[in-house]
C-alpha cells in the first residue's frame, strides 16, 4: 500500500517512466504469449517453440535493464535524512522500489493478456476483433496456467533485479589519497567481442542449416551466428565502463584546461554508471546494422515478420531509454558538485562546454566501434 501511495503522488516525469516500463513489459508479455500460441498451434514443433521462447530472453533482458534503471532514479526510493526514524531505512526503501517495479510490470502483463485475447477473438466488442486469429492459434484453447506463468516472468525478474541492484551495500573504506576502483572489464570485454565475432564467422561459413526460428519470419540465420552476436553484445557491455574511463583519461592528457579537466573527471567518475548502458546500446546498434545488411542482401525477400520487428523495437527502445535514464541519474548524482562550482564563480558556459565535450568524445569513440563490429558481424551473414 505504501508503494502505491508513493507511486500515486510522484512527479509526472516519474510516472511517465513507470508507464514506459509497463509498456515495455506489455510488449515482452505479448511476445511470450505469441510463443505460447505457436506451441499450442504446432505441437509437433516443440523444439522450434522452445527456441522461440529462448529468443524472447533478449527483449526480456532489455526490459529488465530499463526497469532497474528507472527504479534507481525513482525519488521515492532515494535515502533521505529522517526516514529511518519512521521505519523507512535503506532496506525498506529497497523493498518499496522492488514493489513499485513489480506493480508497473504486472500492469503491463495484464495489458498484454487483454490485447492477446482480443486479437485471438476471445474478447469482442472492440476494433480488430480476432485480427490475428490464425497467427495466435485461436482454434485451440489457451492454457491459462501456462499463460499466467509466462506473464509472471517479467514482474518477478524485474522486481528481483531492482531489489538486488538497490540493496544496501557495505564497502570497505578506501585508503586515504587512493584513486577510485578503475573499471577492470576492458580486457575481458575485448576478448568476448573477439570470441563472438569468431563464432559468428565460423557458423556463417559452416552453413550447417540449423536455423534458430525467431517470432515471425527470419528463420534462416544459423543458431551459431546468433550465439556469436550475444557474446559480442556481452563483450561490448563489459568493455563499456573501461572505454568510458579511458575517454576520460584521454581528455585530461597533455596539459588540460579547466573544460577538459572537468569533462575528463566526470567521465572517469561516471564510467561505471553510463559505460555499461552505452556498451549495450552500441551492441544493439551494431546488431541492427548487421540485420539491415542481411535484409538488403536477401534479394527483396520478406525476411522479417511483425513479431520479430516488435522484439527488435523493444530491444532498441529499452536500451536507448536505459542509457537516457542512466545519464539522468548521473546528472542527479553530480547536482551538488555543479551547485558548488556555480557558487564559487564557475561560468555556466564552462559547464555546458564540458557536457558537449563529453558527448563528442563518447560519440567519437563508440560510433566507429559500433560500425566496425557491425561490418564484421554482417560478413558471415551476407557471404
UniProtKB/TrEMBL annotation:
TM stretches of this protein: 20-40, 52-72, 93-117, 144-164, 185-203, 223-244, 278-295, 307-328, 349-374
Record bears the keyword NAD: no
Keyword annotations for this protein, in alphabetical order, are: Membrane, Transmembrane, Transmembrane helix
Q: From which domain of life does this come?
A: Bacteria
What is the protein's name according to its record?
Putative integral membrane protein
Amino acid at each position: 500500500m505504501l508503494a502505491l501511495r508513493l507511486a500515486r503522488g510522484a512527479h509526472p516525469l516519474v510516472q511517465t517512466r513507470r508507464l514506459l516500463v509497463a509498456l515495455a513489459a506489455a510488449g515482452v508479455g505479448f511476445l511470450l504469449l505469441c510463443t505460447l500460441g505457436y506451441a499450442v498451434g504446432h505441437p509437433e514443433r516443440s523444439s522450434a517453440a522452445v527456441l522461440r521462447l529462448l529468443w524472447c530472453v533478449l527483449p526480456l533482458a532489455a526490459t529488465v535493464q530499463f526497469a532497474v534503471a528507472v527504479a534507481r532514479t525513482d525519488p521515492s526510493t532515494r535515502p533521505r535524512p529522517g526516514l529511518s526514524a519512521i521505519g523507512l531505512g535503506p532496506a525498506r526503501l529497497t523493498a518499496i522500489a522492488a514493489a513499485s517495479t513489480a506493480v508497473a510490470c504486472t500492469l503491463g502483463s495484464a495489458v498484454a493478456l487483454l490485447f492477446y485475447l482480443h486479437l485471438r477473438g476471445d474478447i469482442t466488442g472492440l476494433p480488430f476483433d480476432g485480427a490475428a486469429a490464425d497467427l495466435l492459434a485461436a482454434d485451440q484453447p489457451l492454457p491459462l496456467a501456462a499463460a499466467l506463468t509466462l506473464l509472471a516472468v517479467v514482474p518477478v525478474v524485474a522486481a528481483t533485479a531492482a531489489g538486488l541492484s538497490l540493496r544496501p551495500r557495505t564497502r570497505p573504506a578506501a585508503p586515504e589519497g587512493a584513486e577510485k576502483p578503475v573499471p577492470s572489464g576492458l580486457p575481458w570485454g575485448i576478448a568476448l567481442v573477439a570470441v563472438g565475432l569468431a563464432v559468428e564467422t565460423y557458423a556463417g561459413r559452416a552453413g550447417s542449416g540449423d536455423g534458430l526460428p525467431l517470432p515471425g519470419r527470419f528463420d534462416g540465420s544459423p543458431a551459431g551466428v546468433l550465439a556469436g552476436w550475444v557474446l559480442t553484445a556481452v563483450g561490448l557491455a563489459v568493455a563499456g565502463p573501461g572505454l568510458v574511463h579511458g575517454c576520460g583519461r584521454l581528455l585530461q592528457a597533455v596539459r588540460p584546461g579547466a573544460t577538459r579537466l572537468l569533462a575528463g573527471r566526470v567521465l572517469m567518475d561516471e564510467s561505471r554508471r553510463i559505460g555499461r548502458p552505452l556498451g549495450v546500446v552500441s551492441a544493439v546498434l551494431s546488431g541492427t546494422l548487421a540485420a539491415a545488411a542481411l535484409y538488403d542482401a536477401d534479394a527483396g525477400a520478406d525476411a522479417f515478420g511483425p513479431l520479430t520487428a516488435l522484439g527488435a523495437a523493444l530491444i532498441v527502445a529499452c536500451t536507448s531509454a536505459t542509457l537516457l535514464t542512466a545519464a539522468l541519474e548521473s546528472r542527479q548524482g553530480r547536482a551538488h558538485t555543479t551547485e558548488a562550482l556555480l557558487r564559487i564563480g564557475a561560468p555556466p558556459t564552462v559547464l555546458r562546454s564540458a557536457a558537449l565535450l563529453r558527448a563528442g568524445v563518447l560519440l567519437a569513440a563508440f560510433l566507429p566501434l559500433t560500425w566496425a563490429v557491425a561490418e564484421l558481424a554482417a560478413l558471415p551473414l551476407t557471404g
